Amino acid sequence: MGRCCYRSHCYSFSQQQTNHMxxxxxxxxxxxxxxxxxxxxxxxxxxxxxxxxxxxxxGVVSRTDPCKLNFNLSSSIGIPYFCNAASxxxxxxxxxxxTITAEGVAAVEDILKGLHDPNGLGAxxxxxxxxxxxxxxxxxxxxTNSWTxxxxxxxxxxxxxxxxxxxxxxxxxxxxxxxxxxQTTWPDLTATLDAGVKIIHHHGxxxxxxxxxxxxxxxxxxxxILYPDLSFNESTxxxxxxxxxxxxxxxxxxxxxxxxxxxxxxxxxxxxxxxxEQGVVPxxxxxxxxxxxxxxxxAQLCAWPSRPLWSGKATxxxxxxxxxxxxxxxxxxxxxxxPLY
Length: 341
Hints:
InterPro entries: Tannase/feruloyl_esterase (IPR011118)
Keywords: Disulfide bond, Hydrolase, Serine esterase, Signal
Family: Belongs to the tannase family.
Strand order of the largest sheet: 1-8-9
Oligomer: single chain
Structural class: alpha+beta
EC number: 3.1.1.-
Pfam families: Tannase (PF07519)
């Protein structure tokens, strides 16, 4: 019997690479470049507001979905921030002192909405609430004493002329070029299924490089292609019998998160071996807290589409089905005529 194990896999090459330019283009389009400290403070406001939505207050946003449904980003406007002067990879950063602005919030709202064309049609997905928006980080221009997009220092492209539609065109061109090579989103895994392969796929829910919604979208694509005539629950059960997706609460890009002391899977390969060789199905995935007050303690990760929930004053843990939460992970890519897997 075959076996397979992977985590936040970098697929959708043309979309993923172009998506790194989306936050700077949002800032350019809106004419406002948030100081890094403003972005960071905004992130902390989201974390503080949404921490307890899973029923437990632990500094980790385990449920970014109800956060997206319930948290009003505008509530952060006017909240003060301060950061000391520091050296950065891209140059000097002066001390930053101010308040979260309406312009900064508007930019974050557009980034979290995801790339869309001039008609408002969806072109790509985006990050979860509470994620550090690293691609939106600005750099300080000492000649003008102002903040500017980091893209201007790291790209030879004439990015100042870019629009949302430019990015959409880049995606479509790359999609055609790399469909058979670097896209790696082929959803028909019939041969994989027939070979008896087992897949454990996990992705940090606060990944700031590859949006975790991409893993959800791929998992859903496989489900819809392999089991088109079954209901959502029936097809999910069939798929989860051999391919399981686990979202890691607070998890960053292929690692634990420096901003949230959440758990990270440490024994995934062992779980896979037990599944393949002993038939021990990983209904939940083991993870370990690597920092904070819970460092060293164990956690259980829920298999998609179930979501984590604590009850009884955070004494009882369960994985629950929440349709409203599930719906927040689904994007419509109606800017294209072809299906995007």
